[in-house]
Amino acid sequence: xxxxxxxxxxKMCRHFPIRTALFTLGPLVIGAAQFLNAAVHGSNLxxxxxxxxxxxxxxxxxxxxxxxxxxxxxxxxxx
Length: 79
Hints:
Elements: H1 9-15, H2 17-41, H3 45-76
Helix pairs in contact: 1-2, 2-3
């Protein structure tokens, strides 16, 4: 009987730790660094908050794409 269980984010992290960290945590760290830089130097926080929000959205979209690719590779057996 076929299983309907799909590979999870944790399984993708175990198979591809560097790629997952780069595309998931990288944009979040950059957005946080931009926000802290603006707070320290007295820049326009609303503009930087918008950039940080876009970095979070980018991280979510790229992570979902990487997970879909991982699931497809798992199903096709190319891993």
